[in-house]
Amino acid sequence: MTEQVEVKPLAVRMHNIHKRFGTVQANDAVSLSVRAATVHALVGENGAGKSTLMSVLYGFYQADEGEIEIEGRPVRIPDAHAAIALGLGMVHQHFMLVDRLSALDNILLGAEQGFFLRRAQAMARERLLALMQSSGLVVDLDARVGDLSVGDRQRLEILKALYRGARILILDEPTAVLTPAETEQLFAVLAKLREQGCTVILITHKLKEVMRLCDQVTVMRAGRVVHECAIAETTVEQLAEAMVGRKVSLGRSEPAEEVAGEIRLVAEGLRFTDAMGCVRLKEVSLSLRAGEIVGVAGVAGNGQSELLAVLSGLASPQAGRLQLGAQTFGVMPGERWLDPRIARQLGLAHVPEDRHARAMVMDFPAWESAVLGYEALPAYSHKGWMRRAAMMAATAAMMSRFDVRPPLPQLGSSKFSGGNQQKLVLAREIGQNPVLLLVGQPTRGVDIGAIEFIHARLRELRDAGCSVLVVSSELDEILALADRVLVMNAGRITGELPIEACDEKTLGMLMSETDVAQVAEEVEA
Amino acid sequence: MDELMLGTLLASTLRVATPLILCALAGVLAERSGVIDIGLEGKMLCAAFAAGAAGAVWGSSFVALAAAIGVAFALSMLHGYACVIHRGDQVVSGMAINILAAGLTVVLGIACFHQGGQTPALPDEVRLRALWPEAPEVLGDLIGNGLAGYNVLVYLALALVPGVWLLLQQTRFGLRLRAVGENPHMVDAAGVSVHGLRFSALALNGLLCGLAGSYLVLAQNAAFAPHMTAGRGYMALAAMIFGKWRPLPALAACLLFGFLDALAIRLQGAVLPVIGEVPVQFIQALPYLMTVILLAGFMGSSQAPGALGRPYLKER
Amino acid sequence: MISFFKSGATPPMPRWAELVLMPLVNLAIAFALAGGVVALVGQAPGLVLETLLQGAFGSLRGVSYTLYYTTSFIFTGLAVALASHGGLFNIGAEGQASIGGLGIGLLALWLSNSLPWYLMWPLLLIAGMGFGALWAAVPGYLQAWRGSHVVITTIMFNFMASALLSYLLVHQLKVNDGMAVESAPFGASAHLSGIHQVLASLGVEWPSSPLNLSFVLALGAAVAVYLLLWRSRAGFRLRAFGSSASAAEYAGINPRHQTLLAMACSGALAGMVGMNEIAGVNDKLLLDFVGGAGFTGIAVAVIGRNHPFGIVMASLLFGALFQGGAEVAFEVQGFTRDMVVMLQGLIVLVSGAMSHVVAGPVARLVHACSRREASFTEKETQHG
């Protein structure tokens, strides 16, 4: 044992944790030590095993092997209930809230004192008001959660954990859904909690946030801990290298040789309100030209998904016009909006963000998924009858051209890895030589080898004269692919830059600036 | 219409509505916890048979009630085993219970009592009697017939409506139950057992279905007859939906449906001025028609619990 | 040693096991449970089974009755399966079959005395399919455009169908002098020939039975459903929608049209039950001619894994159970055909609702066996 006085005692010690799901070793001999009253970052790429490790700590999963100590005592955590009793609190990426209940009831749930609610509610309200004051987390307790903003819901989640007496808070990707201003507020709260003696474990893959707030960092890759150190002793570059396991050199692509061909698509004044009444797109206008890749950058949830949906015909906006080749679409009486079928007929292909829900039918064999959306082409069907042999041959050709493994058209769509699924989808969408291609999150959940392959195909397509729109929440990907960058923030396009003028700092500012203005307004009010 | 007729109409409304109320409350509890229950019909039928058989063999209303509740409870647990633990399809499981009940009750009835599936008529002391049989004489036809003079199950059913409301809205258990029907992940994260809650809801559901079934045998008729539920379970399901998964509106729906049923019997063959002979079938179909119209959103909006029908899987 | 009943990851099952072994295992469990009940009520399961098989397949007449029951089950089984491929659970086959039969009856009452059979038969088929399709399309429409769930609506529509049929028979179509609630008999041209009549005209002797040309129609319907689902573009779209509504939307497939189409086709198939029961056997419209075939269709579709071939096989099974069950009821004191209804419930329970309960252990068993086999062959090749 060390005798140094300034070293704080351990709040959490996980030792030699193993956890496997089927054939996947999600955690392989993972050890993690978190000191009390610190903010400890747990970083790694998607699928590195961070969430699994924290789920083991919070009792969602049982480790196959390994020990856990909380505040020096060895413990067994069979379920969330035990975790809460030990002073653990977790804020999930997808909030664990019931929309139809009030904020107060949401906090109360699972921690009610006594059988009847009325008294429990009164007691809880009193304690919560005190808690809100000391922590700076303010939420309207009587509001229906369904009516609260994302930031409010996150505050509610933290409040909920604190109400249960959490001394160790686990936050899973807390900033993924927040605007930069909300992130600021969150970090201020977390710093305050640290002062009050709370321990925070922050799961994230945003390294700059780690550098700003955290004291210690543990890096995971492919189920193992690969790096562990104090923040003061490391740099973003070192952490990034540890995360991906090699020098990060997402090289910037050679810009298109002949910049800007003819205009292929013009969208004007797009406004879109979702089913919840939230305005997702505000007066968005853009144009796409032949032979360029336009990247859309922005914090996830700032309207990029809705932009893709509206441009591909999956959703109709409330206002706006769209010109696609010679055709015009609108929402005025007598006009109609694009639908996905017409879009394909006009040569607009779309690789959707959500591969599992949209791009493939997971129950179908690959050869049926590989014609999805194109089943009416004469190559695939004739007079209403499917041409199975032709479909299978076409799938086999796609698979060999895009190096899809295993190259088995009969195999179920769900049996392929994420990268191979994405390659097959890309092969399908590129296969009919589109004049326009919309791509959402081209490499989400895709292994590194496939990333480079996919990027190369997108560049080829551009060089062949196609107009490509790439939406990605990975800034690196935008910088590596795009010839021109649009920045989206709070439903607007807040900036348009040629790639030469782009760097992370400028883009970061554009991604957040209106929000700063908004926050200023709120503060004044 | 005179006082006597109104009194008897009211009385038959309540008598018809009682099993509906019990079943609808059972449905409210299960479905608010996120478990679809179209097996109300089958559970009620099995409970009715159990009450008839046990009452005939042991000659005790208590044993009959206990048997009915026990059988319905067991079927609820079966539903839970298939759907909550093993994530089977809840609609399929409910249908299986209904079909199984329709066959099994007759098979066992014939095997045990050799009366074509009927159970022997229960003696009067086994049946549930009116708590205050002299009421019509004392209070007059309207109030005496219409409001007093029922057996204990009728009042129990009526009392259970605010009871279930109170349980759902004002207790810890109710809060958790409502939450688990909307977002089971959240309940799990809060350290409360999703399966435990759903099984508790199903246990209460079984209890109520048992009461409903025993009412048919111990109060309404004097014996079990094959297929005697005759779609009441489905009508209770309709009433529950019509009541938007809430106890008090569900009660109103049950009373309305019960009234229509009573009216249909009364109007059988009657010739009214202007309309002529009333097509009884139309009145009988009215509850279903109204439920369809309500569900289609032509009569205000109706929202089912958020996680209804979706089995809870821990791995997200 | 492998524990077959532990929960946890289920190894993937080979295709043959999933398609053939699983239904057989499920059936075996359901039969064993039913056998238990038979034994419990004091009868010998072995004797019951023997009498049942004898009754169902022991004579040409028995086989004919078996196939007659099979016919209706094929129609309703296909109806449930087709809707299920569109992601919809159609509990309303019973009501759709009643209304289909109503259509056939109304048309027959109207035209059977004036049109020859070769015009009458196709018209009857169109009427049955059309009425069934319309009755099912309404719940489909209500789900697609109004958001009410098809399961609940079709249950409600079953009751409404029964009320409608009863109203028309009691108030409008009833023959005055009869006690029974039924319509006047149809003219001869609305009678679908019995198989024995057809065979007799070909010079083959066949015992008289209710088995009629609808059986051929049912087999044709099974082939048509196969072609529709797996060979046609419409079927491709329907299955895409049924498996993943969001992927179908992305592919430009209109979800509302698919819902409506699936329900209408499903109702049309259910409506064909009337060809068998009304045009083929009764020659008049009556109450309750469907007799639960709509619900049996659920069991048929479940055990037939929603595939036309499986459905024909499962229908044959249930046809045999119904026919054989009737024989057993005749021979064995205290046995009723309700036993078959109970078995039907058990089958839906075991292979439908509890499929996951059974699938795990079976998958582990198959896995273990195939592994052992693999290691044997490995050793043999090493030695050889």
Automatic annotation (TrEMBL), chain B:
InterPro entries: ABC_transp_permease (IPR001851). The keyword 4Fe-4S does not apply. This is ABC transporter permease. PANTHER family: GUANOSINE ABC TRANSPORTER PERMEASE PROTEIN NUPQ (PTHR43370:SF1), SUGAR ABC TRANSPORTER INTEGRAL MEMBRANE PROTEIN-RELATED (PTHR43370). Keywords: Cell membrane, Membrane, Transmembrane, Transmembrane helix. It is found in: Cell membrane. CDD domains: TM_PBP1_transp_TpRbsC_like. Pfam families: BPD_transp_2.
TrEMBL record, chain C:
It is a multi-pass membrane protein. It comes from the Bacteria. The keyword Chaperone does not apply. The keyword Lipid biosynthesis does not apply. It is found in: Cell membrane. Keywords: Cell membrane, Membrane, Transmembrane, Transmembrane helix. InterPro entries: ABC_transp_permease. This is ABC transporter permease.
